[in-house]
Automatic annotation (TrEMBL):
<feature type="region of interest" description="Disordered">
    <location>
        <begin position="463"/>
        <end position="509"/>
    </location>
</feature>
<dbReference type="InterPro" id="IPR056702">
    <property type="entry name" value="DUF7800"/>
</dbReference>
<dbReference type="InterPro" id="IPR029052">
    <property type="entry name" value="Metallo-depent_PP-like"/>
</dbReference>
<dbReference type="Pfam" id="PF09423">
    <property type="entry name" value="PhoD"/>
</dbReference>
<feature type="domain" description="PhoD-like phosphatase metallophosphatase">
    <location>
        <begin position="138"/>
        <end position="439"/>
    </location>
</feature>
<feature type="domain" description="DUF7800">
    <location>
        <begin position="1"/>
        <end position="90"/>
    </location>
</feature>
<protein>
    <submittedName>
        <fullName>Uncharacterized protein</fullName>
    </submittedName>
</protein>
<feature type="compositionally biased region" description="Low complexity">
    <location>
        <begin position="468"/>
        <end position="485"/>
    </location>
</feature>
<dbReference type="InterPro" id="IPR038607">
    <property type="entry name" value="PhoD-like_sf"/>
</dbReference>
<dbReference type="Pfam" id="PF25077">
    <property type="entry name" value="DUF7800"/>
</dbReference>
<dbReference type="InterPro" id="IPR018946">
    <property type="entry name" value="PhoD-like_MPP"/>
</dbReference>
C-alpha cells in the first residue's frame, strides 16, 4: 500500500476549487475526499525517484468550509491515526468579506523534541498551536511565505549528520546541500514537524523563494555569479534547487487553469519519469532567466496580491543593473494597472524589503555607484567586497528599480480609482518593522502606503525581533497628501485598509 511521505499541503484555493499537494512512497492515485461531497483525484508523477501529486479539488461552495481526508489507492492516509489535531479543512472564500493574511520568511526547521534550539521559539509553530487549540477562533485566510522556506546553505546538526553519511563534508559544498535528494531532506525536516504539517494542511499557502532556498546572496552581482559558476558544484546545487522549488513550492501557487496551460507540468505528468524534463526546464531558467516566470497574481475578492520574483529575475550587468528584467517589470506593471477600480487593496510580496532605514538605503545606493565604476576600477572592486560582506542587495541597491517601483505605486495610487491601501510585504532582514513613506503633494490624493518586513509570528529569526503592535486603526496611515479614512474619497471610507489583529497578521475589509 502506498504511504504518505509528506503533506498534505493545502495550496491554491478560490471560491470553487483548491489544490492539495502530497508526496507518496510509490506510484499511486491520490484522492482528496471532502465531507460536503467535493473532491478530486490525481495520479502521481515521478521526479528523481520521488512520487508527488497535486490533487485538484473541485465542487467547493464559496463562503463555506469543509473537512477533508486523503486517500492513496483507496486507503485513507490522512488524518493520521490518533491525530491530536482538529480535522483538516478547506475554507472556500466568498465573494464578500475581508481577508486576513499571515506572512513571514526565513524559517529554520524546528529541532527534535527536547533538542536545543539556537534560534529560539518557532513562531510558525506557535501559530499552529494557537489555531489547533481554538479551531473555531480567529484564523488567517491565507499564509504568505516570502522566502527562505528552507536553508540550503546553513543546515542543522541533524541534517549535517545525514549528509555526512552520504558524502565527505570536507569536499564542497560542505555542510550545504548538493543535489535534489538532499533538498528533499530539508523539506522533510521542516514540513514533517507535526504542528507545521497540520497548519499547512488547513491554511492555504502561497510561496516565493529567496536566497537561502539556493544559497546566501544568490544573484547578488555579476561578479558573484561568475565566481559561483567557476566552481564544480554550483550548477548541480542551482538546478536541484530550482527543481525542488518547482515541485515543493511553485506548483501549488498556480490555479487549475494555469496548471492546465503549463507545458512542463503536462510533460512531467505524462512521462513515467519527469526528471529529465524538469532538469531541462531548470537549466533553461539558469541560462536565460527571462524565459521563466516565477511571479504570480492572486485576487482575493477586492484584494490583489502580486508575488514578485526578486532573485532569479535580476539583471546583473553593472551598467544596466535591475532587480527585475524587462519582461518581469512589464508583467508587474501590467498586473498593478490592470482594471483600475477592480481592487481596494494592493499587496506586493517581494522577498527583499523595498523601504529600509535612511542610512541603509543611502549606503546601498552609494555602494551601487561604486560597483558601477563611478570612482574607478579600484573602488569598484572595493565596493563589490563591501556589497557581499554587508549583504547590500535590497531594492535600494538597485536605485533605478527602486525608483521605478515607487513610480508604479504612485501611478496606481493616484486618481479616482486608486486603491485604499498599498502594502509591500517583505522578508529577509530577520526582524519586523513597518515603514511608512511620505508622498509628494504633486501626486494628488493617494492611498495609505506602507512596507512591512516579515513579522516574527511566521518566521524564526536569527536576530532579536521587533513586534508590530496590534492596533484598532490602519497600520499605514496616509502620509503627506495621501487620503485617509474619513476624507471625502468614498473608496477610502469604504475600505479603511489592512489592520493588524495580532503580531504577524493583517486583515483587509
Amino acid at each position: 500500500m502506498a504511504g504518505l511521505r509528506l503533506g498534505p499541503l493545502l495550496r491554491y484555493t478560490d471560491g470553487s476549487s483548491a489544490t492539495v499537494w502530497v508526496e507518496t512512497s510509490r506510484p499511486c492515485t491520490a484522492e482528496v475526499r471532502c465531507a460536503d461531497g467535493s473532491g478530486g483525484t490525481a495520479r502521481t508523477f515521478q521526479i528523481a525517484g520521488h512520487h508527488y501529486a497535486l490533487v485538484p479539488v473541485t465542487g467547493l461552495t464559496a463562503g463555506t468550509s469543509t473537512t477533508y481526508e486523503v486517500l492513496l489507492d483507496g486507503g485513507r492516509v490522512w488524518p493520521l491515526p490518533g491525530s491530536p489535531f482538529p480535522p483538516s479543512a478547506i475554507h472556500a472564500p466568498g465573494p464578500e468579506g475581508g481577508l486576513r493574511v499571515a506572512f513571514g520568511s526565513c524559517r529554520w526547521a524546528s529541532p527534535p523534541a527536547g533538542g536545543h534550539d539556537p534560534v529560539g521559539p518557532d513562531a510558525l509553530d506557535a501559530l499552529a498551536t494557537r489555531l489547533s487549540s481554538d479551531p473555531e477562533g480567529e484564523r488567517p485566510d491565507v499564509l504568505l511565505l516570502l522566502g527562505d522556506q528552507v536553508y540550503a546553505d546553513e543546515t542543522s546538526d541533524g541534517t549535517q549528520r545525514w549528509l555526512a553519511a552520504r558524502r565527505d563534508l570536507n569536499d564542497p559544498p560542505g555542510n550545504g546541500v548538493a543535489d535534489y535528494e538532499e533538498y528533499t531532506h530539508l523539506y522533510y525536516e521542516s514540513w514533517l514537524d507535526p504542528r507545521i504539517r497540520w497548519l499547512l494542511s488547513t491554511v492555504p499557502s502561497f510561496m516565493i523563494f529567496d536566497d537561502h532556498d539556493v544559497i546566501d546572496d544568490w544573484n547578488t552581482s555579476a561578479a558573484w555569479l561568475a565566481d559561483m559558476r567557476a566552481t564544480d558544484w554550483w550548477r548541480e546545487r542551482l538546478l536541484s534547487g530550482l527543481m525542488s522549488y518547482w515541485v515543493h513550492q511553485h506548483l501549488g501557487n498556480l490555479s487549475l487553469e494555469e496548471l492546465a496551460a503549463d507545458p512542463v507540468y503536462e510533460q512531467v505528468r505524462k512521462l513515467p519519469d519527469g526528471t529529465d524534463v524538469l532538469r531541462t526546464f531548470a537549466a533553461r531558467a539558469d541560462a536565460d532567466p527571462a524565459t521563466v516566470r516565477w511571479s504570480y497574481r492572486r485576487d482575493f475578492g477586492r484584494v490583489r496580491l502580486l508575488m514578485v520574483d526578486s532573485r532569479a529575475a535580476r539583471v546583473l550587468d553593472e551598467q544596466g543593473r535591475s532587480m527585475l528584467d524587462p519582461g518581469e517589470e512589464a508583467w508587474l506593471r501590467e498586473q498593478v494597472l490592470d482594471s483600475p477600480g477592480a481592487y481596494d487593496h494592493l499587496l506586493v510580496g517581494t522577498s527583499l524589503p523595498w523601504l529600509l532605514p535612511h542610512l541603509v538605503h543611502d549606503a546601498e545606493g552609494w555602494n551601487a555607484a561604486l560597483c558601477r565604476g563611478e570612482r574607478g576600477p579600484r573602488w569598484a572592486r572595493f565596493g563589490e567586497k563591501v556589497r557581499r560582506a554587508a549583504d547590500l542587495e535590497h531594492w535600494s541597491a538597485f536605485p533605478e528599480s527602486f525608483a521605478r517601483l515607487a513610480g508604479l505605486i504612485a501611478e496606481a495610487g493616484s486618481g479616482p480609482d486608486a486603491p485604499a491601501t498599498v502594502c509591500v510585504l517583505s522578508g529577509d532582514v530577520h526582524h519586523a518593522y513597518v515603514a511608512e513613506p511620505s508622498w509628494s503633494a504633486v501626486l494628488g490624493p493617494a492611498p495609505g502606503w506602507c512596507s512591512w518586513s516579515a513579522p516574527p509570528s511566521t518566521t524564526r529569526c536569527r536576530s532579536p525581533c521587533g513586534w508590530p503592535s496590534a492596533s484598532a486603526g490602519p497600520p499605514c496611515r496616509a502620509a503627506s497628501a495621501a487620503a485617509s479614512p474619513g476624507t471625502d474619497d468614498s473608496r477610502h471610507r469604504r475600505s479603511p485598509g489592512a489592520r493588524p489583529t495580532a503580531p504577524g497578521s493583517a486583515t483587509s475589509s
